[in-house]
Amino acid sequence: MAAAAVDSAMEVVPALAEEAAPDAAGLSCLVSLPGEVLEYILCSGSLTALDIGRVSSTCRRLREVCQSSGKVWKEQFRVRWPSLMKHYSPTDYVNWLEEYKVRQKAGLEARKIVASFSKRFFSEHVPCNGFSDIENLEGPEIFFEDELVCILNMEGRKALTWKYYAKKILYYLRQQKILNNLKAFLQQPDDYESYLEGAVFIDQYCNPLSDISLKDIQAHISSIVELVCKTLRGVNSRHPSLAFKAGESSMIMEIELQSQVLDAMNYVLYEQLKFKGNRMDYYNALNLYMHQVLIRRTGIPISMSLVYLTIARQLGVPLEPVNFPSHFLLRWCQGAEGATLDIFDYIYIDAFGKGKQLTVKECEYLIGQHVTAALYGVVNVKKVLQRMVGNLLSLGKREGIDQSYQLLRDSLDLYLAMYPDQVQLLLLQARLYFHLGIWPEKVLDILQHIQTLDPGQHGAVGYLVQHTLEHIERKKEEVGVEVKLRSDDKHRDVCYAIGLIMKHKRYGYNCVIYGWDPTCMMGHEWIRNMNVHSLPHGHHQPFYNVLVEDGSCRYAAQENLEYNVEPQEISHPDVGRYFSEFTGAHYIPNAELELRYPEDLQFVYETAHNIYSAKKENVDE
């Protein structure tokens, strides 16, 4: 009987949603049902938010069922934006109708801003003040971020420009939030500092688009702790560590009991789970990101030590971090409590080397040099983070000249957040932005700060100030958009067009054209260094700006390029800056690029068609 009533009512509901004046008999049938049945029907997923709004306006009974804080609007919110539900507690009172409206408005605002970015910033890097519109938005930031994530997750090969700028905005928003959290974290007293938490902030800042949380990483480590406890139980079923509860900070005082914990840890980490130091790929930034260290079960001494330290402390062994040169270590006290201790009263643990326990002499042998007693001392969280960021900084400097230097930029931001008056790093940051041609106003601010901190840097500062001001003036002098027409006689030798997938004849790389010149427009020095004169047509031939599959941007001579008869997507981070869609055969330029090359798209369609037809004929033969 109840099932029949539900089926009958389900047929009535869509009609109510569409009809301005619902049938009285149908409405009577519906409202006579119990409230739970009505809620079940309205939450079935067949109705949109607009339908629910119409249904609730038909009578008082349905309006009560569709109350703003009830299950019906909660379900509408959950179905539309499921990822946001984790931000709400089951015990909180929530006006779900109002939340729906606010989230909907935030989504529209987000799309409006993303759509404006291509027109505003196509010809330059998004400036420092380019995100001011976002920072001034009303409403919860999580709603705005969620819409950006929705854009990034759009299926297919379309909306590439939207995805490109949504990614940039989301990257900026999350990094700003993480950096503020890190600064607040560093201001806390030492009692509240956590080595793991600080390391997670670094991980999050360098990977802002990844879903990395301290809670998840702690849960991963807790699962390892459980395995250690299982092993420990087999050795000593009455071991005090087995009685510890999560979150407790109890410590075991007996050395023998501590030793049992460390033995169990070494077995689980290195024998059972196969953790190991990454000797084969030591200089890889992934070795410093805690979520990657746990997933890949490998790292370098400092990251492996933080995992080891966290597990040991949870099980009551008071290990301490040692900022040892060239090889981060942990120390384990062997002396009596309250006694005056020196470096020989500790055993030093190499987490990178499978938890090997070392004497002072063996530590020196490990790095091949004698060191002073001060270098065996314990360090606080800030010093540990400084070393981690310093490692990332070194890796960032190793990036190739064609890269965006994102790791170097991120590590500089982190280091200067901890030590804002480091003159040499400020100077490096100013030079980096100047080299990349971005944020000239910020470059001037940095240089002014350097001059205040160290007037002796006036030579380097003066040079950069002069050239940065010249750069700003040149930008002001730029007028309009340069339009290149294929029909112009001076462009008669241009054989290819923007959006075509090409292959380099000599180096074999795949690329997509995003610009062209009738002749080489680079300076004499570049032409000489690239040995352009050795080409049969030299520099008096069309040259093309191309995005290469390895992430680089290059300037290639026409005679060195050929059509790629098997076109494929080019996985370059800047593809979305220039193109809106990949058709499977070629890219379609976005509005800003097409404005500069208005006759290229038709040429691309014709060329792609001819290539496909020729390929089909070859197959048929």
Order of neighbouring strands in the sheet with most strands: 10-9-8-7-11
Give the number of DSSP strands: 13
How helical, in percent, are the residues? Answer: 40-55%
Average pLDDT number: 88
Shape: globular
Q: Cα distance, first to last residue? A: 68 Å
**Quaternary structure classification:** single chain
* Secondary structure category: alpha+beta
Q: Enumerate how many helices there are, as a single number.
A: 25
The Rg value, from CA coordinates, equals: 31 Å
Q: Give the percentage of residues in beta strands.
A: 5-15%
Largest sheet: 5 strands, antiparallel
Residue runs with pLDDT of under 50 for 5 or more positions: 1-21
Protein name: F-box only protein 21 isoform X2
Pfam families: F-box-like, Transglut_core2, YccV-like
Domain F-box: 27-76
InterPro entries: F-box-like_dom_sf (IPR036047), F-box_dom (IPR001810), Hemimethylated_DNA-bd_dom (IPR011722), Hemimethylated_DNA-bd_sf (IPR036623), SirB1_N (IPR032698)
